[in-house]
Amino acid sequence: MHCTWRSIVIFLAGLIITCGLNACGSAPWRFDPGNAASPTGVVATGGDKQVSLSWAPAQGAAGYNVYYSSVSGMAAGGGAKVAKVTGTSLQVPGLENDTRYYFAVSAYNSKGESALSAEVSAVPAAPGGFAQADLAGNWRFNALVTGVAPRWLRGSLGIGSDGSVSVTAYQDSLGGGAPPAELFTSMTLLPDGTVLQDGVAASFHGTLAANLYKDLMVGTATLAGGARMLVVLQKSVPGITFSAADIRGTGKLVAGPLAYVYHQLSAGGIPEWEYASCQVGQDQGVTYLSLNGPTPRALPGSGSKVVGLAITADGVVSETSYPGVLPQPAALISQGIMSADKMTVVATATDASGTPLLRIMQLVHPPTVLLTSNSYVLSDLAGRYGVHELYGAVPGWGYGDVTVNAAGGMLFAAFRATGGATTPAGYTVAMDPQGKLTAAARSAFHGQFAYGKDLMVATGNDAAGAAMLSIALRRE
């Protein structure tokens, strides 16, 4: 009998415990898991067509839901959803490379779903030779804005190892002293050299050059009111200084006059391109050899020396006109920035009519180096480039990839313009022994390949006949 009563007691105790654990009846001591807390510490890392997510365990969570979208500002239930994730990490596959995706995580249990975590973002990208640290440093920039409030912009900024941007100096041709909020925010460098920004500057799309110093970046963006911008950024490389020897000829006993060309685009009432061929003597005096544009231009100086070049130790290039020389050039450069390889100068200026412009000057050869038969070989063009263009007549920009074969054939891919995705027709370029590029299929096309084999700059008319400045940086 004793054994029987003991069995009954054990049975009743077990029944009571089971009932309590399952919230049996309306007993006040039934089990309550409480509301699940929102996850914290969410981290998103981009990979090739995928993003890896991780987060800290949330109190009261039985599992997690992951939401994602290519549009920021998701509400609960918005975007795509990966439901019932049991761990605290996830790989989201099947994403489009070079597109920013936004992610948020919720926790759930038997009482329901928590609020979303703080939103994070990442950009999937194909493997490549670039790392975020390549952006870190001090940069100077020159930009041209077309369309609404046409103007040039120039200044300097610092980029942190995390991509944070701090503008340290700024001015524009309209008298502005503070940069537009949508100019620079935080920069993300993808492994293939693509540079993106977030927040109000999310329209920015840039390319970092795969040269020795990784010191040249070009980008396009849309500013407030629909204005279109092409910007060139140049990194200040520690240990590199500049002198007058970098911008003058070396005489017949060495390499002769220093040859350079420039391409420029103006904004304003009648945007136009301009292409010039020049040479610099030992006295740093510049002679214009040719000058071209969509409307006739008088050759500055008519064969005489027109301006003198000067340079500071930190690479700021300026021009001073020679008095009494006619005709004078329409614009003088006061703050051009020389690249770390000492072969390119980027400048903004305002011409005599008050029109803002962006000019890219390229030395055809270093001051002390004679050109040889293999200094510029067409097959050197072969490779993949990030191309960025600004158009004048119908203000707009374009960017994308272009692949060039050993015969000069150019094939565009993944190209986007102001109005949306598009793919320009390919064409073929020819190159002379001084790196000058021509294209029979393009109207008034003038181009120059860099001595360092990493840069192509061109002016002319686009397929619609609009004035155009095109800059292509080698990606690999």
Automatic annotation (TrEMBL):
Fibronectin type-III domain segment(s): 35-128
PROSITE patterns, per database record: FN3
CDD domains on file: FN3
Pfam families xref list: fn3
Source domain of life: Bacteria
Stored SMART domains: FN3
Name of the molecule in the record: Fibronectin type III domain-containing protein
